[in-house]
Design brief:
The chain is α+β, with helices and mostly antiparallel strands and about 100 residues long. Helix 2 packs across helix 3.
């Protein structure tokens, strides 16, 4: 079931403010995984969950989700955090009210 379900944008076109279906599934999986294990899934764990051979599809979706403000990422493999829309995110990835 490897297919691209991201934001197909023309140059200069703004990002949509909503999640695509795969981005929504990725967000839900990340939240459920974090609740179950107490830490975020890695990109490889997400790719495996969705049946992708390569991690690049998940990486692309995470890039879009971060640019849209739905997640914040740090430098470690498990530093993926779902944030509330509209929350201010510092350079360290911490949210501010």
């Amino acid at each position: 079931m490897a297919y691209y379900d991201g934001d197909r944008l023309m140059p200069g076109q703004p990002l949509p403010k909503t999640l695509s279906p795969i981005q929504n599934r990725t967000k839900k999986f990340s939240v459920a995984f974090s609740k179950k294990y107490g830490w975020a899934p890695t990109v490889a764990e997400m790719a495996s969950h969705f049946g992708y051979v390569s991690t690049s599809t998940i990486q692309i979706q995470l890039d879009y989700m971060e640019r849209k403000g739905f997640i914040a990422r740090g430098h470690s493999p498990r530093a993926i955090r779902v944030v509330e829309r509209g929350a201010k995110i510092s350079r360290t990835g911490a949210t501010k009210p």
